[in-house]
Amino acid sequence: MTELIFKQLSYDDVENIFQASRGNVADYFYKFETLEEAEEWVNDAIRKQAEGSKLEYVVYEGENLVGMISPRYIGPTTVDIGMWVDVGFQGKGYGKRILGALLAELESKGVQEVIYETDKDNLASIALAKSLGFKLSDDSNTSVFKLFLDKGI
């Protein structure tokens, strides 16, 4: 298995983010009509990273953008996660590797509760959440899953 490289989103990622948004991830992420729209989104995301309100990690395998994962603290020990995997990497275990790596990192930092929200029709994302031990906690228009990392809870 090739090593995945996690790095914070930077201006260097604009073109790759733009290209990814043109594919099927637009169903679950954004669809940028122009490169300038992608640049605006990246600029805003980098500003939020600097403020400490959100992190955006891009994940690469070599030079290829695999996906993105975004942990956001919503409480002292609670994190909300959003993620997407590029269509060329879906169905091959990349999502599980990416989310699993982040969960291990969060647990080492004392996070106790992780919330993972996905569209109800995103069956692959729902299966991913369940495979990592998340439990469905909401039955609205989206599927909200929770995972307690502190087994004592």
Number of domains: 1
The amount of helix comes to: 25-40%
In round numbers, the mean pLDDT is: 86
For the secondary structure, the number of strands is 7
Largest sheet: 7 strands, mixed
Spatially, the strands of the biggest sheet line up as: 1-2-3-4-5-7-6
Q: Structural class of the helix and strand makeup?
A: alpha+beta
CATH superfamily: Gcn5-related N-acetyltransferase (GNAT)
What is the terminal-to-terminal distance? 34 Å
Element-level helix/strand string: EHHEEEHEHEE
**Quick one: CATH class?**
Alpha Beta
User: Mind telling me which CATH architecture this is?
Assistant: 3-Layer(aba) Sandwich
| CATH fold descriptor | Aminopeptidase
The fraction of residues in strands falls at: 25-35%
How would you sum up the global shape? globular
Radius of gyration: 15 Å
Unreliable runs, pLDDT <50, ≥5 residues? none
